[in-house]
Prior knowledge:
The chain is an alpha/beta fold. Helices cover about 30% and strands about 15% of the residues.
Amino acid sequence: MPELSRSQLFVYAAVAVALLLVGARAIRGEGAPEASFATDGGEAAGTFSIEGGSGDLVVHVAGAVRRPGVYRMPAGSRVDDAVSRAGGAAGRADLEAVNLAARLADGQQVVVPERAPGGASVAAAGTEEGPISLGTATVEQMEEIDGIGPVTAGDIVEFRDEHGGLASIDQLNQVPGIGPATMEALRERLQP
């Protein structure tokens, strides 16, 4: 058997070490790359993970957070986890208007409203002009929808919180007391 030179031994050793590192990462599951994109200010505007898992959720975090964007979260995550993943609440955020303990649902949008100058929440101060976010709507906001009274509004918010959020307005069919006419009103005024 011919003798190997020092440079050949070095190359073989480097290849062996690289293969061991790649193998160890694959076994631990930490080898999935993470990509991000930057804003004009140079800070990351959003991050998404390419790693896949059958129990993962994809959520959109918007509003008064440091890095709004679409994030992949582990199953069982809470709204607080999504806000943290988005860099945390911005200084102008009104976290009292968001149920941070609610479980996330796949496809859910989490909107963190801003505080208005008078201390009120911008989302709570909204008028009937635009749709209301199903993921963050309060009982009072639900009551503004035609055909929704305080009991039904409370039932909707309770149902949403028990199920960790709602990915679709159609899921409200499961709430007792909501019929076809109410569903039409909800579709017009709510967004998932």
